[in-house]
Amino acid sequence: QLQLVESGGGLVQPGGSLRLSCAVSGFTLDYYSIGWFRQAPGKEREGVSCISSSRRSGSTNYADSVKGRFTISRDNAKNTVYLQMNSLKPEDTAVYYCAADFSLFRPCTLSTSGQNYWGKGTLVTVSS
Known about the structure:
By secondary structure, the protein is mostly beta strands. It has no helices and eleven strands. It is 0% helix and 46% strand. The radius of gyration is 14 Å and the shape is globular. A hairpin with a 6-residue loop joins strand 4 and strand 5. The strands form two sheets. Strands 2, 4, 5, 6, 9, 10 and 11 form a seven-stranded mixed beta sheet that branches. Strands 1-3-8-7 form a four-stranded antiparallel beta sheet, with no helix packed on it. The relative contact order is 0.32.
């Protein structure tokens, strides 16, 4: 059964750090791109970061709002993708989702419409 399960969310003070995990099962992680997305209350879901498959050299992409603060990585042996979030800001508060992109013919994309399967999300709250 295909599954993506996010974990690692929580409450953190501004300037703090969190590491999110996306554990996948039911498919070979290394073959596909994985992305992190977020949705704040009253806002549309937006792309945060993504990482391509190994055949695409594991290339990464970041939204401008998180460049230099967030880092995406993958551990194929553990079937897990991570999002290290540093220097967190209140505007980073959102439900964070990971998603799988099963296209084999392009690098990863931050477009929500480019994803084939979604996890249920984990809440990140940045507040003092």
